Amino acid sequence: YNKVIGFDHFYLYDNSGAMDLDTSLKPIADLFPGEVTYVPWPSRICNNRPNNVDSPGERSSQYAAEASCRLRFGPHVKWIGQFDIDEYLVPMGEHSTMTTLLQKLDKEDTRIISFGSWRAWPRRAYIGEIEPIRDFDTCWSNESCFKLEIPLNTTMLQAYNCDRQPPGKKTEVMPAEKQVYRADYVTHHFVHYSAVTALSEYNKTE
């Protein structure tokens, strides 16, 4: 999908091997020589637990991987962005690819672009059999929960194509937007924000 919309190279930071070598994404990366740079990332500390439980959310593995990618590969690219494997950018309006959008931004001297985000809902027809789980440590609640599984013969885009809002510009978005930015302009990026840029490094007189 990302190749179709115009991205020409991918830096794959894979921490799945930190848990189990059998789950490594390297065999998949090897299918795309010259297009995917594979980086084994052994750090295990990356969870998303709420703050009211033991071992609250701490994504230091993700944060460090993002910083590593920008520092190591930023000098070799013009535009860069960091996305999870289940996140998809959708060019809109007159743009059907990221290529034409970024060319337009270059002409405007725009160096950072933020994308609004919204979680897509899975379609019930593509969800595996639901078995209730009643365990506080698993559900983080006294209410029952379940493990959502997508059948192996169903793609992520096929299953998660149920939006709360119709296609087009969203009337509301989640606060955690994602960015694509000029690598020579943003000197420190933190997940959703360009924390330090070439401009912010200037003092008042400059």
From TrEMBL:
Membrane-traversing stretches: none
Bilayer disposition of the protein: Single-pass membrane protein
Keywords per UniProt: Glycosyltransferase, Membrane, Transferase, Transmembrane, Transmembrane helix
Location(s) in or outside the cell: Membrane
Entry's Gene Ontology molecular function annotations: glycosyltransferase activity
PANTHER family reported for this sequence: GLYCOSYLTRANSFERASE FAMILY 92 PROTEIN
Family of the protein in this entry: Belongs to the glycosyltransferase 92 family.
Protein's name in the database: Glycosyltransferase family 92 protein
